[in-house]
Amino acid sequence: MTFHSSVFRFPVSGLPVFYIFHSRPECPCPTAAVDPGRGVIEPAVTFFGETAMEKYFDLHGADFTIRCKIYFAPVAKPAAGIETGLEEAGQPFRHVIVFCHGFAGHKDNAMAQKLAGRILEKHDDTALVIFNWPGHGDDDHAGITLEDCDAYLGTVLEYVRSTLHPRILDASATSFGGYLVLKYISDHGTNPFRRICLRCPAVVMHRVLTEKVLTAEDLRTLSEGGEVPSGFDRKVMLSPAFMQSLRDNDITALDFAPYAASMRIAQGTADELVPFDAVQSFAGRNGISMVTVEGADHRFLDPAKMDLVLRTFMQFLDL
In whole angstroms, what is the distance from residue 206 CA to residue 250 CA? Predict the structure, then answer.
């Protein structure tokens, strides 16, 4: 695989970040490149519907690579911006949604694709960006830390702001992704998003793992200082230090009331992983509007219930 790279203008932790755009193996498209002289991004995209295209790309730093995907319309200025150079397009996208997947998920997230498809049927000036958390999907990390998650989200946000230049920046996050978005806001003391949609946010993430996901043998291994794999398609390696960091970073003890108006939660009453009462209590204590979906499980496998969430979130995002 051949591609060129270009250094953009902002540092992360004092180090330059490389934006490398290319065709991923799972994306049957010609190799894309960023011309070092012009910053021109050649298209490496594929249709997943009549009104939307998807494109894989990487954000490279000195010691990390963030695997990303962007959904956008195949017409109008957004596509022109990708094809002819961002500096020529001026403002490629009016509205960008950053989507944060859950624990053991990845950038090829089904809800992200559904949400992008619904949005792009109506708005060709909007894009959705999703990325892998550390140790998830085809990420290069073997394990995960909350510090790395914070760095990944910060890097993606800086890329969106400095390169895509949206007038509106929103977020949609699921489960562990919701926990990480809330933690990012608390740690940095500011909300980078206009609005945030949270589906079954894992506000008690340590409890979710210790009570719902990990086995007794896993917990014993962790207590003895070992690491354990956990997850679905790809196992995420969990260390005792990571588990302790989740215990130490209990977001239910934090105040999100100042950001309540910017947030909307959708939670199923039959969620088998994230306790309904914990999310309801978190929402009520912080004054965050919550939509209760009767009978919905954690993954919202019932298409009608998922459709309700999609419509609720799109309305909240003015889409």
Answer: 8
Residues making up the chain, counted from first to last: 319
CA distance 64 to 79: 28
Encode pLDDT of 208-256 as tens digits: 999 999 999 999 999 999 999 998 778 999 999 999 999 999 999 999 9
Kindly list the domain boundaries of the chain, sorted by start residue.
Answer: 1-98+122-166
CB atoms under 10 Å from CB of 32, counted, come to 22
Helix, strand or coil for residue 79?
A: helix
pTM: 0.83
Within 8 A by CB and 6+ apart from 194, the residues are 168, 169, 170, 262
Query: For residue 286, what are the β-bridge partners?
Result: none
How is residue 197 written in tokens? 């949609």
Give residue for tokens 């950001």.
Answer: 259
Q: What is the largest CA-CA distance in the chain?
A: 57
Q: What is the pLDDT of residues 288-313, one digit of tens each?
A: 999 999 999 999 999 999 999 999 99
Q: How far apart are CA 152 and CA 243, in angstroms?
A: 19
Task: Give dist(CA 80, CA 114) in Å, integer.
Answer: 23
Q: How far is Cα 234 from Cα 103, in angstroms, rounded to an integer?
A: 11
Residue whose pair of structure tokens reads 């894009």 in the numeric block: 127
